[in-house]
Amino acid sequence: EAGVTQFPSHSVIEKGQTVTLRCDPISGHDNLYWYRRVMGKEIKFLLHFVKESKQDESGMPNNRFLAERTGGTYSTLKVQPAELEDSGVYFCASSPRLWGGTYEQYFGPGTRLTVT
Amino acid sequence: GDSVTQMEGPVTLSEEAFLTINCTYTATGYPSLFWYVQYPGEGLQLLLKATKADDKGSNKGFEATYRKETTSFHLEKGSVQVSDSAVYFCALNSGGSNYKLTFGKGTLLTVNP
């Protein structure tokens, strides 16, 4: 079974440009999460999809960030326009449908974004 | 709100040394606790978890016990190997309808032969 994949692995863009990150969750996982780690800091939650619906987007830093999950499969996270403080590693994770209890979140390798 | 505090390191040990990485937490409700590990060039992997007080999670020789009275979940291993070199993250999920993970800052462990 393929794991969570993310594309690209690295992206270097200039301030003001637009970048789109993609995440492909494990097949059949209804739940998809985005997290971000700014250098030297905690990994912070950004948002949570259940299928194509945004369940919780309380961690999105501002309206320059737009996440979508059309059709409930892969997800994209667009940053427009990018600022220097957006640099960091963006992780995607997925988990199966939650019926109660605690389900492991399976993480992708991350996309390292550098804004210059 | 929820928070996790872990020793920041970096931690450098010789092979076969004893490892402890401290983790304490603040959370509402009854959180589940996790240790994730990130090996170089890879994504985060769940190392172990505990879902209620006094539970002990264990995997690959690592152990951590959920201590509600001290709000701690310290990671231990009796004899580390070079292959254990990685970044270790303590995390919690406060449960209910809240599925997001709250992480500590991570601890870089380097094990020398």
Identify the overall geometry of chain A.
globular
Could you tell me the strand content of chain B as a percent range? over 45%
Tell me the fraction of residues in β-strands of chain A, as a range: over 45%
Roughly what percent helix of chain B?
A: under 10%
Radius of gyration of chain B: 14 Å
What's the average pLDDT of chain A?
92
Which structural traits does this protein have?
heterodimer; A: 116 residues; mainly beta; 7-stranded mixed β-sheet; B: 113 residues; 6-stranded mixed β-sheet; 4-stranded antiparallel β-sheet; 0% helix; globular
What do you see in this structure?
- The complex is a heterodimer of chains A (116) and B (113).
- Chain A has 116 residues and is an all-beta fold.
- Chain A has strands spanning 5-7, 10-13, 19-24, 31-37, 43-50, 53-56, 65-68, 75-79, 88-95, 106-107, 111-115.
- Chain B is mainly beta.
- Helix content of chain B is 0%, strand content 50%.
- Chain B is built from no helices and 12 strands.
- Chain B has strands at 3-6, 11-14, 19-21, 23-26, 32-38, 44-50, 56-59, 62-65, 75-77, 86-93, 102-103, 107-112.
- In chain B, a hairpin with a 2-residue loop joins β7 and β8.
- In chain B, 38% of the residues are buried.
- The mean pLDDT of chain B is 93.
- The chains are: A mainly beta (116), B mainly beta (113).
- Chain A binds chain B through residues 3-4, 31, 33, 35, 37, 40-45, 48, 55-56, 59, 91, 93, 95, 98, 101-102, 104-110, and chain B through 4, 32, 36, 41-46, 49, 51, 89, 91, 93, 95, 98-106.
